[in-house]
């Protein structure tokens, strides 16, 4: 750890103060897990805004999230996206011709289906007259799909939108080198044998070196795992704390899976193979086994390993979003209102993964809420160290004052309300599909627990983050048409 901290202090001058400040205030995940926080009194006001359309999530589904290289390895992304759309149609019985627009998020695009939303929609039987487009915003791509849907409905352009996301890490596009591509293009334009021979004479063996897609920042040429390692060092988060948090995620996901709480998962019959019914990356281990793994990024002193990082995942998700009046007219009882959302961006070098810390107070202020009002928190777990660093930063007046220009901290979410059905560390993280999973986990948790307010956050490459505020499913005793005490969410 000493060597890693030295690396951080040398190469991250702006985070050196973090290490000095937080090294004397280590976060013990174990102690937080054992602590029982007092339940705060909940505000019952709605976040509805005058002269604004209420926008609701009726329901959402996802294919099982699978480790890359397993059952989905012979498929294409649009196959998974089509399965999510078909599952949503079956779950909600929404008429295909009622859907005004379809939006999907993805990160590593298959060149044959660059607009995967359109290809998946056609494959799922939607009309060729239903517009569809694809968005990309790293790990918050499906968040962007959902908030784009919110904008279309709020502006009156649409009443019914399907938003989703997909990622297939089992098969990624591998390109020829730039020099080889240039020569091949020039050859296709050459008109004479002499021109062709002249171009071929310039060929070198190193032209054949392939270009692999990298999960790295273009501006810094640094992998996200490397950033997570430095962030953990800067906030003095130990390897043990990271492993403890990862074990928590896997244990809670296993429990939720066993109790049937992951109800957004729909079975998928893989062509030529068996039907997949559940996520396959949930694997609770032991701290002793986890401690045996070697650092994955900064070697040999790093603390980020395969055990406390999210894994490469294949999967797709989709949600049905409507204007409230349209939902009621169609006889739906929606699960959640979508109320507010905020996007923020940070320095992709020093603060790549700290977006939730910056966005949380903004979306809460926008909604007129405090941390005590939130009943369900769902944060994307890229790495254990990333989550724990954000919890520390959110709970620090010093960080708020020196880095955020705020007078006081926003406060960290209590763990008894935080990702209690597991998270990306255990359930998996198909880059383009995770946002919809977070949304449905929040809405379903609020419905089951009788909560009112939920908050979703996800960091992304480029130092960006999406925060959403939800007010989720109605209480069991609530009549939807009474329009009070309805659960709501913030993204």
Automatic annotation (TrEMBL):
It is found in: Endoplasmic reticulum; Mitochondrion inner membrane; Mitochondrion outer membrane. Residues 55-324 form the Thiolase N-terminal domain. The keyword DNA-binding does not apply. InterPro entries: Thiolase, Thiolase-like, Thiolase_acyl_enz_int_AS, Thiolase_C, Thiolase_CS, Thiolase_N. It comes from the Eukaryota. Residues 332-464 form the Thiolase C-terminal domain. The keyword Transit peptide applies. Its EC number is 2.3.1.155, 2.3.1.16. It holds the Pfam family Thiolase_C. GO terms for cellular component: endoplasmic reticulum; mitochondrial fatty acid beta-oxidation multienzyme complex; mitochondrial inner membrane; mitochondrial outer membrane. GO terms for biological process: fatty acid beta-oxidation. SUPFAM superfamilies: Thiolase-like. Gene3D superfamilies: 3.40.47.10. Keywords: Acetylation, Acyltransferase, Endoplasmic reticulum, Fatty acid metabolism, Lipid metabolism, Membrane, Mitochondrion, Mitochondrion inner membrane, Mitochondrion outer membrane, Transferase, Transit peptide. Pathway: Lipid metabolism; fatty acid beta-oxidation. It catalyses: hexanoyl-CoA + acetyl-CoA = 3-oxooctanoyl-CoA + CoA; tetradecanoyl-CoA + acetyl-CoA = 3-oxohexadecanoyl-CoA + CoA; octanoyl-CoA + acetyl-CoA = 3-oxodecanoyl-CoA + CoA; decanoyl-CoA + acetyl-CoA = 3-oxododecanoyl-CoA + CoA. Its main location: endoplasmic reticulum. One of its GO terms (molecular function) is acetyl-CoA C-acyltransferase activity. Signal peptide: none annotated. Belongs to the thiolase-like superfamily. Thiolase family. Mitochondrial trifunctional enzyme catalyzes the last three of the four reactions of the mitochondrial beta-oxidation pathway. The mitochondrial beta-oxidation pathway is the major energy-producing process in tissues and is performed through four consecutive reactions breaking down fatty acids into acetyl-CoA. Among the enzymes involved in this pathway, the trifunctional enzyme exhibits specificity for long-chain fatty acids. Heterotetramer of 2 alpha/HADHA and 2 beta/HADHB subunits; forms the mitochondrial trifunctional enzyme. Also purified as higher order heterooligomers including a 4 alpha/HADHA and 4 beta/HADHB heterooligomer which physiological significance remains unclear. The mitochondrial trifunctional enzyme interacts with MTLN. Interacts with RSAD2/viperin. This is Trifunctional enzyme subunit beta, mitochondrial. It comes from Delphinapterus leucas.
